[in-house]
Amino acid sequence: xxxxxxxxxxxxxxxxxxxxxxxxxxxxxxxxxxxxxxxxxxxxxxxxxxxxxxxxxxxxxxxxxxxxxxxxxxxxxxxxxxxxxxxxxxxxxxxxxxxxxxxxxxxxxxxxxxxxxxxxxxxxxxxxxxxxxxxxxxxxxxxxxxxxxxxxxxxxxxxxxxxxxxxxxxxxxxxxxxxxxxxxxxxxxxxxxxxxxxxxxxxxxxxxxxxxxxxxxxxxxxxxxxxxxxxxxxxxxxxxxxxxxxxxxxxxxxxxxxxxxxxxxxxxxxxxxxxxxxxxxxxxxxxxxxxxxxxxxxxxxxxxxxxxxxxxxxxxxxxxxxxxxxxxxxxxxxxxxxxxxxxxxxxxxxxx
Length: 352
Hints:
Elements: H1 2-27, E1 40-41, E2 50-55, E3 60-65, E4 69-74, E5 79-85, E6 91-96, E7 102-107, E8 111-116, E9 125-128, E10 134-139, E11 145-150, E12 154-159, E13 165-170, E14 176-181, E15 187-192, E16 197-201, E17 206-210, E18 218-223, E19 229-234, E20 236-237, E21 240-241, E22 244-248, E23 257-259, E24 266-271, E25 281-286, E26 290-295, E27 301-306, E28 313-318, E29 323-328, E30 333-339, E31 345-351
Parallel strand pairs: 1-31
Antiparallel strand pairs: 2-3, 3-4, 4-5, 6-7, 7-8, 8-9, 10-11, 11-12, 12-13, 14-15, 15-16, 16-17, 18-19, 19-22, 20-21, 22-23, 24-25, 25-26, 26-27, 28-29, 29-30, 30-31
């Protein structure tokens, strides 16, 4: 009887311990993980990592992936509408002018291709001239010119209609990571592995000015719709680097604000539509699987969404006044929605 009583007592204690440890494991991520809710799961647009995403129209997005394809999807329904095939290696960047029917893709195969949304599935134009992987891609506001950048240290300006290279500029060690055209202007912001942020005058393809050099490689850049500010983001690890930085394009003295809180490389940074909130907002995504929303002027983090199982997050795109798309290495494309009566809060709605 004593042995039976002892076994029963041990069983009760073990049961309590198991329940308690499970509770603590769950609670350890309660502040980071996405809230439990119904998430719509659609067929994946790509069968491998999604490297970049951009908004094409009010209900359409364009994405590129390691599967070498460019896909146009209806992000509201999660339906892939067109899949363009033409690159020999993974797509590194996609770009378009919002509302247009032409989209562009850059690749590790050293080429840039143009596609027609309503045309044939084949390429509408080819831009050949870089000697290494193409990592920067920006379209002029009138869609007449294209600016490309590469790890071969060169920028090329192209005539979109003819595919002719109009100008080429080379700067030693300028391994381009991203390009972003200033709306309504003839200027383009460029980030680089040499930690420099350059603003190019595209009329003569010359550097107009630079911002103070950063401590870490600059991975991505975006320009506000009014053309007054630009964002850049840094690589890093363990919380060192990993920040996004706000710059005033009207002066080059120093940064305006920094957004710190990611633990790994901040791969993407974007301005959010002003209608999302009474105060200007920016968003970042990181290899640490989180998307953060920040108050632009103060640097305060207003929302933090942890996408479990996503792998590194590669790109963000703002689609309408309340929706953001996020590209990932492991889980395709996430559709996020900005909600919350007491402040902006990102919520996961769908995956495709």
